[in-house]
User: Fold these one by one.
Assistant:
Number 1:
Amino acid sequence: MAVDSLAFIDTRAAAEALISLAVADSAVDDQATWWLKNRSEGEWSAMNLDPVLRDQGITNKPAELVSITVPAKPKEVKFTVAEVLKLEGDAVKGKQLAPRTSHLAPRTSHLAPRTSLRDVPSDRRAGRGVWTCAQRFRKTQTPDVLARSIVDPSSEISHGFDGDSIQLENGEWIDGLVLTEGKTVTIRSTGGVTQDVPKGEIKSRKQMDRSLMLSADQLGLSAQDVADIVEWMRGY
């Protein structure tokens, strides 16, 4: 989150801080590199960072593709929407739960190649699902729709949580939301990882049969947790 925050500070000092992180052997060097390439062609273009990025080897730094797969839709759920709706929700607790499940995994660029979200601890793989859902639905949906979107998001995939599965030539897969297409396909996976996949490395591509948003079970949420979040979302 600190790296992402640096990317939104429009100063030379912030850019130099990202450069230092990009050339270091750390868990965030790929993340810093991505932001530098993005910002140097956009909001930071006036800083003329290209010579520095070339000298530091950042521009030509190869990006290793990371295989990230969204767990399959559970065959069974531990609790139903009806059971959630019978519970009295606590908006205060729901407010605490929603952002906690959204900010713990803004990026997973530190993950090793061929990492599946199944191998990521549940408290770190939540992504922005519940938080984004709250911002999107707010007061416009009924409690049962809100609860279902958390308990079983794949039952009716919401626009914005429908994604693609890209199979690489090496047989690995990347699940996510395709942002742009050209010589490369830019795809953002659950957890916020954004990757540029050269079309020459794509073996096949298909639409996902499940939501990018993880279910309550996969997030480690209880029926009461969902009831609390729904209560908060209704008044958000």
Number 2:
Amino acid sequence: MTLVEHLKVVLANVVTLKFKAHGYHWNVEGPLFAEFHALFETIYTDIDESIDPFAENIRKLGDYAPYKLSTFQAITELPETSVTTNPIAMASDLLIANDQVVECLMEVFDQANEERQQGVANFVAERIDAHQKWSWQLRVSTKNI
């Protein structure tokens, strides 16, 4: 897979993750509502702000960024899941999906470095750090409950 193709997959993955976090934000219920409602919002807001730079990096490499929902659905690596309104189940599912995004980002980072695309590598490194933060926060939020 070329670097630009890899970036398109990452873009589809982060768009999918953003909608998952946003949907959980809308539908969370229970005594932990406020905490998880806020956490999910923080996550989807951060991810949303990264979507445009992903697309811009694809354009920098001379290709067109996907924008159709059907394209995102076709190339995302994240499975659709059905989760109840339980915040722990939602956070656990979001953690699994986020960890998949981290793995994909690490592959893109390695490839960008191999191809001497330092700007792409720097951007992806920042996104790895952000997604690792979300993994940590989701993991500890579901611990011992």
Number 3:
Amino acid sequence: MKTQRSFTSVLSLLILLAVVRPVHAQPPTPPKTTDVLVLMTVKAGVQREQIAKVLPSEVRATVRLYLDGKLRQWFQRSDGKGVVFIIPATTVAEAQAIMENLPLAQASLVEHDYLALSPLGPLATLLESAK
């Protein structure tokens, strides 16, 4: 219970720091993108058999990306609606170039949604207040 209360307190502080800034503060520096989250879903109307034909080459290509350091993590969505990738890229365009060359994308069987990720910015405020 105490751990949950501590976690809730820290989370509340982070949210407060993200929302409230001193009036005289300069605008924050845009966060540096460190990774890109990619949601891959099968296009509407694509049959399971179409995916099954391309899947072996997709898996091999994905493993190559992982071994080459171009794919940090990948997961199956628990709801069965696709796959989630975390690509170590500094731009969405860089992640798109990687994902669009995979066999399922080349066969126009899947769609991708991209979300740039960055470190949690409000943590820097905690460091500044410790000076």
